[in-house]
Design brief:
Strand content: 5-15%
Largest sheet: 4 strands, mixed
Number of helices: 10
Strand order of the largest sheet: 3-2-1-4
Number of strands: 4
Distance between the termini: 41 Å
Order of helices and strands: HEHEHHEHEHHHHH
Structural class: alpha+beta
Shape: globular
Length: 236
Amino acid sequence: MKINLEEIAKQAQDALGENLVSIVLYGSQARGDASDKSDVNLFFIVQEHAPENLQPLLKLLPEWMKQGVTAPVIFREDQVPRSLDTFAIEFADIAAARRVLYGDDPFTGFTPDWETVRKELEREARQKRIALTRRWLAAGGHAKYYPQIFADMVPGHLTLLRCTLLYQKHILEPTTLEAALSELGRRESWFKSDVWRKLLDSAKGKSKIPAAELDGLMKEYLDQAIALVEALDRGM
């Protein structure tokens, strides 16, 4: 289904009126690497975000979601600059690839605190490493459960890797996942692009990993998760 972003922005304007400040498209649709199944991610800035102020959106969301538009991320205007220390990764990711659909660009001139970004990346990487290890242990050595673990865990790890490249380069620029895998492979001796591509293909259902290879791929995934934490801990 073709998505009319201008119409969605117009509907949001009509629903929220003067309370709406800006609408920004971000994610794969803004980066240019979206697939037919990719979500449409929107970032709203409003003057007030109490439930009664956002109530008009309730009538719009069911139809938007049929078109692949997820419920928007909504920030009150005065909270954006005050949230840079707690949403450093998210704001850097949005600022790197965005399209303003309505209002002013809230990320004009934005430069993240890169050390704050590194700390958030390290925290996220540690949490994902812990979660992956727990899922692996809970599988009890039964490789038949590994494809589901890949499907659940790999997408989040890949987003983290793309943001890790932004941190390493200290440049906010659109970076597709494929470009991130290739460049990290060139920059970092520990990083194995081929492993991540196999994991990506499995997670998306593009390829079925032979049963005899699942144990080895899981071990490589665990090793890469550990290596990522260590790399971020030392500042790459």
